[in-house]
Amino acid sequence: MSVIPTINGKKFKQYSKLQAQKMSQKWDVIIIGSGMAGMSAASALSKFGKKVLLLEQHYIPGGFTHMYGRKGYAWDAGTHAIGEMKTQTPVKKMLDWLSAKKIDWISLGKEYDRFYFGNGKVMNFPDTPKEMIGLLKREFPNEVDVIDRYITLCKNAVTSSRLLFGKNMLPSSFQSPVSKISKLFTDKYFLKTTKEVLNKLGMSNELQRVVTAQWGYYGNPPFESSFGLHALVVWHFIHGASYPKGGSKVFAEGILQEVANHHGEILCRARVKRVLVDNDRATGVELEDGYKFFAKYVISAAAIKTTVKNLLPEKFALSDWGRSILEVKNSPSYISLNMGFEEDISKLGADLKNHWIYATDDLDAKLWKIENKDEVPPIIYISFPSVKDPGHMLKDKLKHTAECITFVPWETFAKWKDSDYQDRDQEYEDLKEEMSKRLIACLQKHFPAMMAKLSYYELSTPLTTKHFAESRNGAIYGLDCTPERFACQELGPNTPIKNFYLTGVDTLAPGIAGAMSSGLVTAAKIDLRALPHLL
Ligand SMILES: Cc1cc2nc3c(=O)[nH]c(=O)nc-3n(C[C@H](O)[C@H](O)[C@H](O)COP(=O)(O)OP(=O)(O)OC[C@H]3O[C@@H](n4cnc5c(N)ncnc54)[C@H](O)[C@@H]3O)c2cc1C
Predict the structure, then answer these.
(1) pLDDT at 472
(2) How many domains does the chain have?
(3) 260 and 146 together in one domain
(4) Based on the number of CB atoms within 10 Å of its own CB, is 295 exposed (0-12), middle (13-18) or buried (19 or more)?
């Protein structure tokens, strides 16, 4: 399988001055960044007749939905499991509209997540609310009442999120009064940590460990995470999980085909240096080589802190608006061990499920501190894209793949932050090798037969993520999903600059569904016809 997405059988255009000179310089909307959010905004706005130019710094579009390959193996950068795709949910309808139904789904099965807890217990999460609640009640018969109250709280938090995010769709002048009202309903969920809420319910630590076992999907353990966000993710997966047929590059192929069909243009290797602002109004963008494109509207779909700090005139970063955005912490940095096998790993322990391995029952453990020689990662995620979708393999060769992720401190890698991709020193390479070997040793305990057949591995670090996705500190999900994040009123599509909007996970919520919804919210700022597609 090729990991490079195409449209109409062709690769995406790469920026060159010559190429740009052949194109119009004046657009209705310029979008910076082709992640799920940028692509979604581009598709919606081009369908409404806007002339859209989508600029991406990478040589392939898709942001964290891009794929990469080595020696015939294929991996996904940031797509392993997506909820709400099994039936016609609002999220599924949104994606079908944006991609003209070009994306098909593979269910991860009746049990989609497996957890290996620190105390030796293994649990699989089933794909219906009834079975999930039944499982919790069977495992914790003394906490049946607590479980019922917890489920009610999750449902209420999810309902209240419509108010929290819905206010973003209003014109700026209405936002402040509506925000005051919405806070009455949302603060009790979104401005409390998960741990606070669960402790108040009187939930035992053992049950807390199980109901928060999916925290890796949003990057913050219960003592840090916002309960409202925790509830959103629990509900996102309450009917199980799916994987896009053909791997995550199908997002770019499906959605950007719609942009192209509606006369939009996509240019890769087009790194925006700055947004052009005249009299506090955006007029276009300047690329790194000085080339300028002009537009009525500019949207930044790049990470929000990168936008504020690097792409706007300094006075906006120094303003109250900019400062409060820059104060929100990044979600954790991560490493990913990408593995290849030339054996059928589905016969050696790999399956469609996502596997989560906890080394300890410490509810707060998050980061793997490699300098402690005996320390193992407190949480490890592993999944098998080629088992989920055999289309990952070349026609005549078994080329199975596994992806293994864990969270690490940015500080471990910070000293190389100014070095270039593929030009880092031996110490960095040695660190990568040590981390790989130690991760492999952990995996051997749970997947001995499969790991015995390992034929290729490569570690991506926070510096790799920073290089390819412009993610600050190689953060996995953008901004931290903490109460502080949801207290920051400035996180949304509106900015102090006229005709300049923000989109992306940082403006709404993490994940593919969060990014896609944020793209539509921002599109609705420019054309209200996007609104019905959000509901
Ligand atoms: C390892 C990992 C696993 C994940 N697993 C899942 C999962 O299983 N399910 C799920 O729902 N979510 C998952 N996610 C999260 C999800 O992939 C992301 O939250 C989401 O795709 C982010 O979308 P975005 O559009 O907001 O940002 P991004 O995808 O980061 O897009 C931003 C784009 O802007 C571009 N850009 C930045 N600066 C510039 C510039 N100056 N000029 C031009 N372009 C620029 C970047 O190159 C990038 O393409 C995962 C993420 C990671 C990292």
Answers:
(1) 83
(2) 3
(3) no
(4) buried
Expressed as residue numbers, the domain containing 215 is 129-238
Q: What average pLDDT does the segment 38-56 reach?
A: 98
Same domain, 189 and 168: yes
Residue 446 within a domain: yes
Question: Strand 6-7 relative to strand 10-11: parallel, antiparallel, unpaired?
Answer: antiparallel
Look at residues 370, 332, 388 and name the one whose alpha carbon lies nearest to residue 74: 388
Instruction: Tell me: do 266 and 230 sit in the same domain.
Output: no
Q: Specify the residue for token string 């959605």.
A: 255
Which whole number is the average pLDDT over 317-329? 97
Does ligand 1 lie within 6 Å of residue 302's CB atom?
Answer: yes
- The answer to whether residues 302 and 338 belong to one domain is no
* Residues near 222 by beta carbon (within 8 Å), at least 6 away in sequence: 193, 194, 195, 198, 208, 212, 215, 230, 363, 364
With a 6 Å cutoff on the Cβ, whether 519 touches ligand 1 is no
405 ligand 1 Cβ < 6 A: yes
Cα of 419 from ligand 1 centre, angstroms: 22
Q: Are residues 203 and 151 in the same domain?
A: yes
Listed residues 187, 219, 238: the one ending a domain = 238
pTM: 0.96
CB of 79 closer than 6 angstroms to any ligand 1 atom: yes
Whole-number Å distance, alpha carbon 36 to ligand 1 midpoint, is 7
Confidence of residue 138 (pLDDT cuts 50, 70, 90): very high
Q: Quick one: pLDDT at residue 535?
A: 78
Per-residue pLDDT reduced to its tens digit, 158-182: 999 988 888 877 777 777 777 788 8
Q: Do 226 and 254 sit in the same domain of this protein?
A: no
Give residue 396's pLDDT band: very low, low, confident or very high (50, 70, 90).
Answer: low
